Amino acid sequence: MIISDTAIKNRTSVAVLVVLIAIAGAMSYMSLPREAAPDVPIPFILVTTTYEGVSPEDVETSITMKIEKNLTGM
Asked: Alpha helix locations (H) across 1-74?
């Protein structure tokens, strides 16, 4: 037999099964441990530096990399 034919013949059993699964799902959801504000580590820092009149490579090596090195401990 096809599953849909069996489900149509046993409507009450299918309805009870759906209700039991919904209740079990709701109880499982309520028992899950949650935290209001979990700590989420952000693995990167974006540093933007502007220094007019200097080439981008010089700004990167002389300023930006030093700032990034000091910020890695945060």
From this structure: 3-9, 11-31, 56-59, 65-71
